[in-house]
Amino acid sequence: MSDPQGQPGTPRPQIPEATVGRLPLYHRALISMHQGGNDTVSSEQLAEMAGVNAAKVRKDLSYFGTYGTRGVGYDVEALLGEIRSDLGLTSEWKCVLVGVGNLGTALISFAGFRERGFHVAAAVDVDPDKVGTRIGELVVAPQSSLETMVRDEGIAIGIISTIPAAAQEVADELGRCGVRSILNFAPTVIEAPEGVLIRNVDLASELEILAFHDQRRSSARDRRPAV
Amino acid sequence: MSDPQGQPGTPRPQIPEATVGRLPLYHRALISMHQGGNDTVSSEQLAEMAGVNAAKVRKDLSYFGTYGTRGVGYDVEALLGEIRSDLGLTSEWKCVLVGVGNLGTALISFAGFRERGFHVAAAVDVDPDKVGTRIGELVVAPQSSLETMVRDEGIAIGIISTIPAAAQEVADELGRCGVRSILNFAPTVIEAPEGVLIRNVDLASELEILAFHDQRRSSARDRRPAV
DNA sequence: CTCCGCTAGTGCATTCATTCACAAAGCCGG
DNA sequence: CCGGCTTTGTGAATGAATGCACTAGCGGAG
Lengths: 227, 227
Ligand SMILES: NC(=O)c1ccc[n+]([C@@H]2O[C@H](COP(=O)([O-])OP(=O)(O)OC[C@H]3O[C@@H](n4cnc5c(N)ncnc54)[C@H](O)[C@@H]3O)[C@@H](O)[C@H]2O)c1
Ligand SMILES: NC(=O)c1ccc[n+]([C@@H]2O[C@H](COP(=O)([O-])OP(=O)(O)OC[C@H]3O[C@@H](n4cnc5c(N)ncnc54)[C@H](O)[C@@H]3O)[C@@H](O)[C@H]2O)c1
Prior knowledge:
Helix content of chain A: 40-55%
CATH class of the largest domain in chain A: Alpha Beta
Structural class of chain A: alpha/beta
Bound molecules: nicotinamide-adenine-dinucleotide
Radius of gyration of chain A: 21 Å
CATH architecture of the largest domain in chain A: 3-Layer(aba) Sandwich
Strand content of chain A: 15-25%
CATH topology of the largest domain in chain A: Rossmann fold
Largest sheet of chain A: 6 strands, parallel
Largest interface: A-B, 68 and 68 residues
Distance between the termini of chain A: 65 Å
Oligomer: homodimer
Number of strands of chain A: 11
Number of domains of chain A: 2
């Protein structure tokens, strides 16, 4: 390989978005390999665990440098370290959750985030009845304390689980407070504030996509109309 | 257009996956247009609402036939009907949820699914303490009643919100019972049973992707090392 | 030291998706 | 009835992602 892993700062070889989307899969697979006590892993095995094909694994990993040994495979620990560092998981990311309803409550009490390097450090709601409620270790704060908490705690990620009608406003507010990334669960398109990256998760859409395919499969089966 | 909307059965022009993924966005946008009392909508407006570009909207819609009028736009009601029928939303889809924990509970009580044509008609859990619990109108059933419920109620979609270690087993069981589509929230790769389509939603992955981009943006900013 | 087996890394062809840009086509005002 | 305005539908160009198939290179056996 010609590009050494760049002693000073970061390389910067512009990673394809499709590859970025698969990093978490590799991350998960490597964690489980590591816990299983494996020292090395081949692209074939990683592919199997991540549910993708081996050539893709190799190409994806090659964007980050040369971490494999031909004839052997990848060093699990080294590769895990590299991916963790690319994902910025060397220290914990603090998140603020806005909208402590059904979904918000589940998210706050979800242990899996912490295991993967994320921590819901604050939660706010407009509803005065919710403010002061305790969920695990976290006490729901009033909307007005958002800015202070974001700045004081160094929160970089916002999670929106309010009603859809409030989502845009909340996103704007989060942007003003200095949050740089937002994960939005409200089923509405949000215009991203300047400098803020938004990802949307819409569960109803996922079901619709399943329904679409199911629909097609069954109408394909009934090519001959029933007698 | 050369392909008439095929009087008998369905056309079958193989819709690109990327297009399928956007149908729910259009669906949502059209619902809101319709509720707002609009009769027609241009590709430009739809694009704005769905957060994509206008050419893409037109190309996507063109796979389903000719629903627009040049110089005018699309008839909201007709287009909504078409999309609803493509998504198979002419009747309600029944779902079974497996694993009534934090997340499962939030999903069951979520009204938004019903509005979009989905109904969690059954929920099961292995934990005997959970069985019999009431969530809204639904009573949690024992794992053993899964097959009967799926068959009797005509359930086509399974939702997995168990712990990751149980996900594969649950998926296999759902497959055996005749479920054809699965939405999996457990952060693990599941091998799909024969004839079953699986979609995964991994929230920690979403956060990791945000973290990756944030990481990159800030390391791009610090090109000059601090003094 | 050499040769063999294995697996990473990658160039290339192919497939899939996006976007541009323009002709075809409906509407409306005169 | 005609001509201008608007917006669709789509061919063709471009770009992104995938996957094959080959080469380079390491480790271990003999
Ligand atoms: N519950 C689910 O399983 C589920 C599934 C998919 C999507 N969603 C979406 O997630 C969002 C939340 O769902 P939910 O079921 O938790 O709803 P919910 O009604 O239980 O909770 C919404 C919460 O947001 C708060 N809120 C409203 N406006 C606010 C504002 N401007 N600022 C701060 N807080 C505000 C409300 O006080 C309430 O506590 C909704 O947009 C919903 O469509 C939920
Ligand atoms: N809570 C969240 O916000 C959240 C967020 C992202 C992902 N997830 C994932 O969703 C899943 C559920 O999360 P949770 O927080 O609700 O966990 P939880 O521990 O609260 O709930 C899990 C439930 O699954 C049940 N269960 C376990 N094995 C089962 C089996 N074989 N058959 C049927 N039921 C079984 C348990 O009895 C329990 O009720 C986990 O895989 C988690 O990683 C949860």
